[in-house]
Amino acid sequence: MTINSNKNKEVVSKMYQSFLNQKQFELLDNFIDSDYLESFLNANKPLLNAFPDINFMVKEILADGDKVMTIYEWSGTHQKEYHKIPPTNKKIKVEGISIYEIKNGKIINSIARPNKLSFFLQLGLLPFDFLVKKTKKEEWVYLVDEFEIPKESYPQFKEKLGYNRQFIKELSGYIKDEVIKDDDDSENLTIVTIAIWENKKYLTDAKTSVQEEYRKIGFELNHFNQKLRIKMKRKVFSSLDLKMPTGI
Question: Which of 128, 163, 184 is where one domain is finished?
């Protein structure tokens, strides 16, 4: 990791502690570029006002060039109106991922991907049976990706994998996903991801949404895999009906 990457991580870490947790607004221009300051405040002030006791815990922070990614969990009590949602006085926890772009030691852009579904469920804005899928299991499809990854490439792979997993959870038709690995090989890791979707149409729509997100954040999958010497195989499976025939 370069010296600049470490410095960029430090900028983001200090912003979380000073601004998001301690609410020291007067220090914000130490971390946010002046051209981005207003947009950053407009994006974050409604949440900080609605949850006055909010506290962010950064679980992991990763840097690659001028980009820094955080995996975080925040907790707080909904005490004031938030985007026209009246206060519920419920204490909730929300996980998420954010990506920050740094230039000359300051944040010039950011993208936040909190778990909105969990947020709305915990506030009681959606019934918990909303998660019960209405489609038949026979219609489910399983997107299976297998990756062979040099161990030195794993940290960067893990960063992108975490971003992807958080993103797809917000898409329609998502049911669940799993990640399994085999690290018996001394040089490479084999990682298999399995994402389950309600039906083929939802999977097709999800692929389109992911590609649009990649374009938005300037990510090219093929280039990424080639750069890190990652080999990838993809297959789509459907459920197998194993119902026993009824008797005569």
Answer: 128
* pLDDT tens-digit readout, 23-54: 999 999 999 999 999 999 999 999 999 999 99
Model-level pTM greater than 0.90? no
**Amino acid residing at 155:** P
Q: What is the CATH number of the domain that holds 115?
A: 3.10.450.50
In 3-state terms, what secondary structure has residue 195? strand
Contacts of 243 (CB under 8 A, 6+ apart): none
Domain of 212 in residue numbering reads as 137-238
Q: Crossing angle, helix 200-217 and helix 154-168, to 10 degrees?
A: 120
In whole angstroms, give the CA distance from residue 31 to residue 37: 9
CA 207, CA 210: separation in Å to the nearest integer?
A: 5
Q: Look at the block and give the residue holding tokens 């971390």.
A: 31
Same-domain status, 72 and 21: yes
Counting every residue written for the chain, the total comes to 248
The pLDDT tens digits of the residues spanning 226-242 come to: 999 999 999 998 876 55
